[in-house]
Amino acid sequence: MEVDRFNLSDLTPGSKYIAWTNNDLPSNRCNPNTFLSTQNDSGFQLGFNDDSSPVGNGFASALTGTVGSSGNINLNVRAAGGGARGQDTGNYELFVDVYDPQESPDFSVATSGGGGFGKEKRGLTQQNPILPNSLQNGWQVFNKVPGCRWFDPPTTYGFEFQSLEDTLFTEILDFPVGDDQEFTVAVGDSILGNFSPGDKLDFISLLGYPVDNFRITGIDSLFGPTAETAFPIQLAFKEREGSFKMRQISRPIDAEAVPEPGSILAAKGMLLWFAAMRYILRKKRQAG
Questions:
Q1: Cα separation of 8 and 110, whole Å?
Q2: Which of 153, 166, 197, 249: disulfide with 158, CB 3.0–4.6 Å?
Q3: What 8-state DSSP symbol labels residue 192?
Q4: What are 62's strand-pairing partners?
Q5: Tell me: the pLDDT tens digits for 230-241?
Q6: What class does CATH assign to 3-103?
Q7: Mean pLDDT in residue range 113-138
């Protein structure tokens, strides 16, 4: 796994510092989910934080510490959680503020597990998805939500996704893990294929352009015990933030209820045969 290493030297021992990453950058479509850690000169880890800083919509990390006797601060940045899909690429900025011992702000030094910047963010996992902002005429609306997150309304046979404003969908980054293992994705009249948990659907690679509408069908089972976890899905937008709405799709009428083309032709053939026989009989009566 790639690790970016940073070193600050010639600092005053005993000084407190705060270090944090900012991933909320205009160049990012999917923010990297950073794991920030600090260690001494011997490589012993002193503290770390994965993604619980409020900076960067929950994909950033931050920690506090004290400058050791060597006068160095050693910081490492890598992808959190092994680099989950949609969270392992992008740009970030690393900031470090070092304070004089006499002017240090009042905050506790980090221990293993983070630096006291914890703040739960929805959408980072399938189990804690972003929920709709409102319900409008059967559409469940997600307004100005960050991209690359998990979203979830109550489940049904399928859903239609429609962008709002200038939002465009670029990817489905992941499908939910559960008993249901296959989903069908379509854009317009084109079925793009069947996909399973762990698969990624890139609209641009398949179609050559992002889309403003698509459908997912074949949802046969719930994925969680509550409405919040029924059918989460991880989406990416062309920009870092987007707005969209989604609505339920009812299960289609059973195909057996619709006559096959061959049956229709046979029925038409029988009607033509009866019509011909009536014409022949009528001609015979007239001749008699």
A1: 18
A2: 249
A3: E
A4: 20
A5: 678 899 999 888
A6: mainly beta
A7: 70
Q: What is the pLDDT of residue 285?
A: 44
Euclidean distance between CA atoms 179 and 104, whole angstroms? 53
Of residues 238 and 148, more confidently modeled: 238
Over range 51-65, report the average pLDDT.
Answer: 73
Per-residue DSSP letter, 91: -
Q: Residues 157-211: pLDDT tens digits?
A: 788 999 999 999 999 999 888 766 789 999 999 999 999 988 999 999 999 999 9
Please tell me whether residue 17 adopts helix, strand or coil conformation: strand
Residue 4 has pLDDT above 90, yes or no: yes
* 159/123 Cα distance (integer angstroms): 19
Task: Give exposure, 113-135, as e/b (b: 16+ Cβ within 10 Å).
Answer: ebbbbeeebbbbebebbbbbeee
Smallest CA-to-CA distance from 57 within 105, 120, 127 is with 120
Residue 225 near residue 231 (C-beta atoms within 8 A): no
Read off the amino acid at residue 279.
Answer: Y
Sequence-separated (6 or more) residues with CB below 8 Å from residue 79: 1, 2, 32, 33, 34, 35, 87, 88
User: In the chain, which ranges are E strands?
Assistant: 3-8, 16-22, 34-39, 45-49, 62-66, 73-79, 93-98, 134-136, 139-146, 149-151, 158-164, 169-174, 183-187, 190-195, 201-202, 213-217, 233-237, 241-249
Write down the domain spans for the chain: 3-103, 134-249
